[in-house]
Each structure stands twice: as structure tokens, then as C-alpha cells.
């Protein structure tokens, strides 16, 4: 490896790291602004200790589910994998608000990296966090506007659509080129892996349309259905866990469907 190649690799890694930091900061800021403005009267208030406990517990569960990811080889190349790590984060978002969902999602990724490491030069891990948050944050915001089953379903539907559309565009514009550069795999080779699965794939655009978009729709739909089935039951445990750090009025508000 010559010095010019080494410098370029260092530059690419530093650029990727900077993008990661900026995007994470933007997501956290957006969730925080939402809680301070449109959700200021609906998000529950519990002690910091209880908040950290809930986030840590759900983050650990999310990391375990994330570790057991699996590919859908009939739909996308092997490095695109499906997991249910967003399920605990979504439950946490419905309980704590969008900031809690983002913290749980970040804890999931960090714990997964400690336990399992990365197989995608960190690009897949960054993508999982960012795209996961595009499901979690909109869904949590919509649900907290009015805590009903109808709003929960609406929020999950909105989050799924946002995740599918954003994930498709983000892969095409940034993630696939970044993966190609950092992992050392030519972009044409990645497209070729998609072509082997679906003959309609012949460019970056068709790759993301026929692989990334349906994969994100499937993931969003599965997480949404499981959230609707499980949240009410799990929320009772979370309410009891955090009850001593909440006022009676807050407990009643948090226990709405």
C-alpha cells in the first residue's frame, strides 16, 4: 500500500466518522426539540435514574435481538440483514418519547459493536442506527400527540413509510458509495450481487428500489405489528418500574392505550 492510498483511506474514514457524528447529533436534536415543543405536555417525566434504567434494559434487549439478524437472500445481498432490534426501541419510544427511542437505538448499536464487532466497516451499523431512527422518531412523535391505538397505528405507518423512503434514498446517495470505499468493494460488484437476485437490478437506483425499499417495508411492517401486539403488556411492567419516579397524574397519562 503506497502512501497516497493510505492517506485516502484515512481521509475517507475521517469523513465517514464526521458524517456519523453530525447525523447522530441532528437526530438527537430533532427528537429533543419535538419533546420540548409539540410533546411537552404528553411525554412522561420520571427520575433520571429510572430513565437510564429503562433505556439500559431495553437497549440491552435490542442489542440481543440485533445480534440475531438474518439475511433475506431472495430479496437482497447477504450484507443486508433483517433484525428486530427496533422493537424494544419502539416500545421505549412509546413509553418515554422520541429521545428515549434514540438513546435505546444508540445503546443497541454500541453494545452490538462491543459484543460482535462489525463486518461492514461500520457502514452497516451506522445505517442501522440512522434508518432505524427514521422509523422510531416519527412513530413516537405521532403516538405522543394523542395516546390512542389509532394514533399508535398511524404513527407506525408513518414511520414505516419514512424509513422505507429515506432508507432507499440514503443508501443510493451515501451509504452504498461509502460502503464501496471503506470496505474496498467496487460499486459495480455490489450492483452485480443485486442483479444475481433480481434481473431488474442494473444500477444503483434499481438496486435500492428492488432490494432496500422492500426490505425496509417488511421490517417496518413486522416491527409495527409486534409493537401493537406487545406494547400494552410490556408498558404495564415499565409503568410499575418507573412509578416511584412519576407523579400520579403522569402515571395516569402514561397508562393511556
From TrEMBL:
Residues making up the signal peptide according to the UniProt record: none
Xref: InterPro entries: ECF_trnsprt_substrate-spec, RibU
Top-rank taxon, per record: Bacteria
Membrane topology annotation: Multi-pass membrane protein
Compartment(s): Cell membrane
Transmembrane segments: 14-31, 51-75, 87-111, 123-145, 151-174, 181-201
One matching Pfam family: ECF_trnsprt
The keyword Transmembrane helix is assigned to this record: yes
Protein name: ECF transporter S component
Assigned keywords, A-Z: Cell membrane, Membrane, Transmembrane, Transmembrane helix, Transport
Any one GO molecular function term: riboflavin transmembrane transporter activity
Family designation: Belongs to the prokaryotic riboflavin transporter (P-RFT) (TC 2.A.87) family.
Coiled-coil residues: none
GO cellular component terms, semicolon-separated: plasma membrane
Primary site of residence: membrane
Amino acid at each position: 500500500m503506497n502512501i497516497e492510498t493510505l492517506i485516502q483511506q484515512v481521509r475517507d474514514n475521517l469523513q465517514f466518522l464526521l458524517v456519523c457524528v453530525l447525523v447522530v447529533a441532528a437526530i438527537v436534536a430533532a427528537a429533543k426539540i419535538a419533546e420540548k415543543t409539540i410533546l411537552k405536555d404528553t411525554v412522561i417525566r420520571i427520575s433520571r435514574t429510572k430513565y437510564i434504567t429503562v433505556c439500559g434494559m431495553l437497549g440491552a434487549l435490542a442489542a440481543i435481538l440485533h445480534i440475531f439478524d438474518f439475511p433475506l437472500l431472495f430479496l437482497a445481498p447477504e450484507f443486508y440483514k433483517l433484525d428486530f432490534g427496533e422493537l424494544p426501541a419502539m416500545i421505549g419510544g412509546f413509553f418515554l418519547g422520541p429521545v428515549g427511542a434514540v438513546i435505546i437505538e444508540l445503546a443497541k448499536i454500541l453494545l452490538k459493536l462491543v459484543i460482535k464487532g462489525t463486518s461492514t466497516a461500520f457502514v452497516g451499523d451506522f445505517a442501522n442506527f440512522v434508518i432505524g431512527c427514521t422509523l422510531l422518531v416519527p412513530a413516537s412523535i405521532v403516538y405522543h400527540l394523542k395516546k390512542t391505538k389509532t394514533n399508535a397505528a398511524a404513527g407506525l405507518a408513518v414511520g414505516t413509510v419514512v424509513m422505507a423512503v429515506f432508507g432507499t434514498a440514503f443508501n443510493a446517495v451515501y451509504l452504498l458509495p461509502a460502503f464501496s470505499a471503506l470496505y474496498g468493494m467496487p460499486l459495480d460488484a455490489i450492483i452485480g450481487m443485486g442483479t444475481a437476485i433480481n434481473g431488474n437490478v442494473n444500477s444503483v437506483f434499481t438496486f435500492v428500489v428492488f432490494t432496500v425499499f422492500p426490505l425496509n417495508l417488511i421490517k417496518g411492517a413486522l416491527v409495527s405489528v409486534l409493537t401493537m401486539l406487545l406494547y400494552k403488556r410490556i408498558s404495564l411492567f415499565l409503568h410499575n418500574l418507573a412509578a416511584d419516579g412519576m407523579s400520579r397524574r403522569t402515571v395516569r397519562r402514561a397508562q393511556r392505550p
